[in-house]
Design brief:
Strands 2-1-12-11-10-3-9-8-4-7-5-6 form a twelve-stranded mixed sheet, sandwiched between helices. It has a two-stranded antiparallel ribbon with strand order 13-14. About 45% of the residues lie in helices and about 10% in strands. The longest helix has 26 residues. The protein is elongated. α5 packs across α16 and α12 packs across α13. The chain has two domains: about 300 residues, P-loop containing nucleotide triphosphate hydrolases (Rossmann fold, 3-Layer(aba) Sandwich), CATH 3.40.50.300; about 130 residues, no CATH class. By secondary structure, the chain is an alpha/beta fold. A hairpin with a 4-residue loop joins β1 and β2.
């Protein structure tokens, strides 16, 4: 909901509105609170506000509850009570649905969301696989060889085949790049197998997500709310985390710099954000910090949603200027420490005991501090979060199915395809190289003479193979020159 000045109306203290300024929204934000304290409703209220503003939204839906935003809310119960208490109807509040687009890595509850392995890059893939430094180095080398050879890594079978190729030719590659240990090759292969067992193979492939499809508006100018079904995805938390980090890096690499904008071009909400940073290597964390800091110049607003502020690394937390804090419990020393940390994160209010308030907040009540027009944090206020205008709770399967069938993106994403890439090229190459060897073996077996020197036919075959390798390598180097990798190692630029 927007107020008369076009600001996002988020909460009310009982005396005054608490609003988020559109031109300050890309300074990022944080929504925290214990389970059941109202984080999801706050997320939906903000998402609806951005949509009304004309800003598309991308949000992860952990439990399926956010899908209801597509349908008008029900003016009853606690929603009706809060609408009446805050006199919202007189200010334009109305039960209405919002434009949505559903995505699902597993293609069950939305359009398949895919990325190619080449686009993800070695750094994020290594994180996804849980590799150590040596194994990560092998993955980076595998990607480099693929790039230099002009071999696209699109799906899991491309990764497996490319890794096997590097392992089989480790002596040759070792002379150029350093020792390649068979144990490292085996460890990465096993990690790929574990990833497939988690269902991650569905994420890699084509058609890959076109970032422009997350930036759509409807005919009335409202931003489309892109909802990623994450209920099943949460069973593979490493896949979930890596997917979101890839999305963040892709947006940074592909969107042009726009500087400060009147409103964000896109608002991202990452629920269960603590998973993004769990067991994250220092090198990757430093790059993520850089992306979060710089992506606002692309007009992107990022909101992390988690239970405690301490779930977010301090270097990232310092970049989150807009904050909503729901209730936290403090029964244990660890919980008490989290409450104190949350309280210290706000600009003090002399009329409010922030630490005590955090433990007393009711459901749907929050401590709120947004950036003012000058970019400084406002004094923290205790306020009631406005109820969403869309439905609170999930859609029925029939309602979701109808939206999916009528989506303009169905024809673009719902049918996968598999073009020629590393797997097909390397498999064909192996078959070509195996054929002469089999012929030579058969010829030697049938020959009654044992030649002292090398058969002339063998010499010619070796010359031909070497020439093929030379030409292939030259072509690969030329293609490799056109492949550019970004800050997290992902392939960007024009899709090939």
């Amino acid at each position: 909901m927007l107020d008369a000045q076009g600001r996002l109306l988020v909460a009310h203290t009982g005396q005054e509105d608490v609003t988020l300024l559109p031109h300050m929204a890309n300074r990022h934000g944080l929504i925290t609170g214990a389970t059941g304290s109202g984080k999801t409703v706050t997320l939906q209220t903000l998402a609806e506000g951005f949509s009304a503003l004309g800003t598309p939204v991308f949000v992860t839906d952990i439990k399926g509850d956010l899908s209801g935003v597509a349908m008008p809310g029900l003016p009853s119960g606690k929603v009706a009570e809060r609408v009446a208490a805050l006199h919202l109807a007189e200010r334009g509040y109305a039960n209405r649905g919002f434009p949505v687009c559903f995505w699902d890595v597993f293609a069950a509850g939305g359009h398949p969301l895919r990325a190619t392995a080449s686009e993800m890059g070695p750094l994020l893939l290594s994180r996804l696989l849980g590799l150590n430094e040596v194994q990560s180095g092998l993955v980076s080398l595998t990607f480099r060889i693929a790039d230099e050879s002009g071999l696209l890594l699109l799906d899991m079978k491309d990764l497996r085949q490319m890794l096997a190729y590097v392992g089989e030719n480790r002596a040759e590659f070792g002379r150029r790049y350093g020792n390649i240990a068979p144990a490292s090759v085996g460890a990465v292969q096993r990690a790929l197998l574990r990833l497939e067992e988690q269902g991650a193979a569905a994420f890699f492939g084509e058609p890959a997500l076109d970032m422009s499809d997350l930036l759509r508006t409807d005919v009335s100018g409202r931003g489309v709310i892109n909802i990623l079904a994450a209920d099943r995805l949460m069973r593979a938390p490493d896949v979930y985390a890596t997917l979101l980090l890839w999305l963040l890096s892709e947006l940074y690499e592909r969107l042009p710099e726009v500087g400060d904008v009147p409103r964000p071009r896109l608002a991202l909400f990452f629920d269960e954000a603590h998973m993004l940073f769990r067991n994250m290597p220092k090198a990757l964390l430093e790059k993520i910090e850089q992306v979060v800091r710089l992506i606002r110049s692309r007009g992107v607003s990022v909101f992390f949603v988690t239970q405690r502020p301490t779930d977010i690394p301090e270097s990232v937390l310092a970049q989150l200027g807009n904050r909503v804090q729901h209730a936290l419990r403090a029964f244990t020393p660890t919980e008490q420490k989290s409450v104190r940390a949350a309280a210290r994160a706000f600009r003090p209010n002399p009329d409010l005991d922030v630490e005590r308030a955090i433990m007393e907040l009711g459901v749907g009540e929050a401590l709120v501090s947004f950036l003012d027009a000058a970019g400084a944090p406002a004094v923290v206020q205790r306020a009631l979060v406005l109820p969403p205008e869309g439905r609170v709770g999930p859609l029925t399967p029939d309602e979701r199915g109808h939206i999916l069938r009528s989506s303009v993106l169905a024809r673009r994403y719902d049918q996968p395809y598999d073009r020629e890439s590393a797997y097909e090229i390397l498999t064909a190459r192996a078959q070509r190289e195996a054929a002469p060897r089999e012929e030579e073996k058969a010829s030697r077996q049938t020959s009654r003479q044992t030649p002292r020197g090398k058969d002339p036919a063998d010499v010619l075959a070796d010359v031909a193979r070497q020439a093929t390798r030379t030409v292939t390598a030259a072509i690969g180097r030329e293609i490799g020159k056109s492949l550019v990798r970004g800050i997290l190692g992902g392939l960007f630029g024009k899709r090939r």
